[in-house]
């Protein structure tokens, strides 16, 4: 029971880094290797006296593009079923990829609120480049660095407002 937030996005965008930051304990495995988080991770986070469940999705298989895409669709579908809010994480360091476009298409059809989280906005240059993510067509867009934590306050304010 309770309010649940799921972090979805293609591998290596920083989902587990944010998850760990939200939980302030290392429950997920963060690694440089794409898709190292084998299964979904569940945790509880607090912000401004409100607590909520967080799901870190992962466990993407390596295989053909078809298999990969199918797996991502599955993960997003599970997250859509289990969560009240979806955090769709993208990576400002790489810019918009085909997989981002693909996931955006699925997520735009979600009946649940979707917050687009543009991660790895570590400096002002990245911020300028990151504005391209507005083109994905989401109303609520947040720019942050999971690594430093900058921007996470605005995101969390928006999350708990939906509780
Ligand atoms: P996941 O596959 O989406 O769960 O991504 P991870 O959380 O495992 O992170 C993938 C890589 O991106 C790791 O090397 C992280 O240290 C790095 N990373 C995560 N957040 C940031 C960030 O805000 N800035 C930068 N520069 N790197 C980040
Ligand atoms: Mg991960």
Summarize the SSE layout with pairings.
Elements: E1 4-8, H1 15-23, E2 41-47, E3 50-56, H2 65-82, E4 85-91, H3 98-107, E5 114-119, H4 124-130, E6 141-143, H5 152-161
Parallel strand pairs: 1-3, 1-4, 4-5, 5-6
Antiparallel strand pairs: 2-3
Helix pairs in contact: 2-3
Bound molecules: guanosine-5'-diphosphate and magnesium ion (MG).
What percent of residues are in strands? Answer: 15-25%
Q: What is the H level of CATH, i.e. the homologous superfamily?
A: P-loop containing nucleotide triphosphate hydrolases
Bound molecules: guanosine-5'-diphosphate, magnesium ion
Fraction of residues in H or I helices: 25-40%
Distance from first to last alpha carbon: 13 Å
Structural class: alpha/beta
Count of separate structural domains: 1
Order of helices and strands: EHEEHEHEHEH
The major beta sheet can be summarized as: 6 strands, mixed
Q: What's the total number of strands?
A: 6
CATH topology: Rossmann fold
Number of helices: 5
CATH-derived architecture: 3-Layer(aba) Sandwich
Could you say which overall geometry the principal axes of the C-alpha atoms support?
Answer: globular
Uncertain residue segments: none
**Rg from Cα:** 14 Å
- CATH class, please? Alpha Beta
Average pLDDT value? 87
If strands are numbered along the chain, what order do they take across the biggest sheet? Answer: 2-3-1-4-5-6
GO biological process, one term: ribosome biogenesis
GO molecular function, one term: ribosome binding
Domain EngA-type G: 3-163
Protein name: GTPase Der
